[in-house]
Every structure is written in structure tokens, then in C-alpha cells.
Amino acid sequence: MNSSRPDRALLSFPMAGQPDRLCLQSLWDFVTAQEPLIKSPFFPVLFSFTAYMAFCLPYIALDFLSTRLPNLRKYKIQPQNYPTLGMMVPCVIQSAYHHAVLIFPVTFLRWYWRPMNLPVIAPELPEVLLEVGVCLLMFDFEYFVWHLLHHKVPWLYKTFHKVHHKHVSTFALSTQYSGVWELLSLGFFAAINPVLLGCHPLTEMMFFLVNIWLSVEDHSGYDLPWSTHRLVPFGLYGGAPHHDLHHLKFKSNYAPYFTHWDKLFGTFTKSHSN
């Protein structure tokens, strides 16, 4: 959708009394100014891989620094286990290969059949927060069901999910270390939820960023003072200790983020970090 500057000026008047929308309009104007890039078939795969690597970098730095600094080591969930360069490099290579060979063809087909429309007006902030939250809850349930099945059915585990459990002690770059079926399944869940909700493209981007960040944090192997599970009250969110225990024990904590499904189905185990 091509929008001229006069169109934007005219559309700014109705927003004068909508501060929630105005607070995101500058951000959305910056995004739409990159329209040729955003509408490129290469954008989704570049966006995904760049965000993933950017979110992994702080934890990669922690992995190298905390072996030398005791003050950082205390935040490591399994302080006796640290990833080596020989463990990290194959994860990066596999992730780059999957993005180029698997994710790009899928996103190209979506680009061809369903071109992205960039509306002029940004969404309101409460709308973005609500829809991102709903998308996360939907993804959490979808992944919980998928994950539970792929542990309870031995053939599914051995054929599709076992590769992700190569590392008993998780680290950030192990987040996307998985087989083709798992990668495509989780990618489908993440992509379809904003479509089902009819989300604004900015909301969709926000959800993708939050989802990638939370996935990396889950596998980081660190329980930091500002970790998400410490910010969400009443133990509703499991976070890195919750998922690290899943990789250690295999038979509990199947939901990626929240704890309610595991508690309802009797598969919840309190994390050793707590």
C-alpha cells in the first residue's frame, strides 16, 4: 500500500485525541519509511535471524564472562556446565542453514500469496499489548500440546524432538537447535496466531520479537534478577529455570512460558533454581 505524505498529514488530525495511538505512530512511520525492505521477500527471514542472533549475544557474552567472574557465575542455573565454542558454532551454522533453506522458501510463498499491507495508521498501545499477550497465550497452549505429544509418543520423540534435547544444560544458541519438523511446526504456530486475530503488522512484528526473546531467555541457562519469571507474579510464568529443568529431567514442564497448563495436567515440577 503506497501512502503519500499529504495522506499522512490528513490522517493525523483524527488522532489528535488518541495519545495511545500517537505514541506508536512515530515508530510506525519509521517502519513504513522502509517499505521497500519491509515488503521484500527477504525481510521475514532477515528479521527473524537478526533478532534471534541479537537476543543471543548478551547470553553468549555471559557464558564467556561468567566462567571468569564469580559474581556472574551465581546466576548460572547449572554452574557446573558451560557451553564451549565447539557446542555454539554448530548451533549457529544449523540456524543459518535452516533460515536459508527452510524458512526462506516458506516465507517467500507467503509473500507471493499474501502480500503485506502497510496501513498508514499505527495501532493503539492497549490493542498491541492485548493482542501480543493473546498471541503468547495461544502459542503457549499450541506448543504445550505439541511438546507433550512429542514426549509421550516415543516414535514422535525419537523421530522429531530428540535432536533438541541433545543439550541437557541449555544455552542461548541451543534455542533453535532442532529438527525440521519442530522448526516448521513452531514457526507455523507463531505465524498463524496474528493472522487469526487480524493483528496490525506492527503488532505482528512486536509479537515475533517478544516470542523470539522469551524463547532465547528460556534456553539461556541463567536466572537473572530481571528475568521475566521474576517480573510476573504468583508463579504464573516459568521462565529459564522452568525450561532448564525440562531439559534436565525430560518428563515435566512442557509449556514454554506459562505454568498453568503444566499445573492443570499434573506435569509441573518446581524448578531447582527456586
Gist of the model:
This protein is an all-alpha fold.
Provide an overview of this structure.
- The protein has 274 residues and is mainly α.
- Helix content is 64%, strand content 0%.
- The protein contains 13 helices and no strands.
- It has helices at residues 5-12, 19-32, 35-38, 43-65, 70-73, 85-113, 125-152, 154-161, 180-197, 201-219, 228-231, 239-249, 260-264.
- Helix 7 packs across helix 10 (201-219) and helix 9 (180-197) runs antiparallel to helix 10 (201-219).
- The longest helix has 29 residues, at 85-113.
Distance between the termini: 50 Å
Query: Helix coverage percent of residues?
Result: 55-70%
**What is the total tally of β strands?**
0
**Unreliable residue stretches:** 1-14
H-E order:
HHHHHHHHHHHHH
Structural class: mainly alpha
Give the mean pLDDT. Answer: 90
Q: What count of helical segments does DSSP give?
A: 13
Outline type: globular
Query: Mind describing the biggest β-sheet?
Result: none
Q: Please state the CA-atom Rg, rounded to the nearest Å.
A: 20 Å
- Residue share in β-strands: under 5%
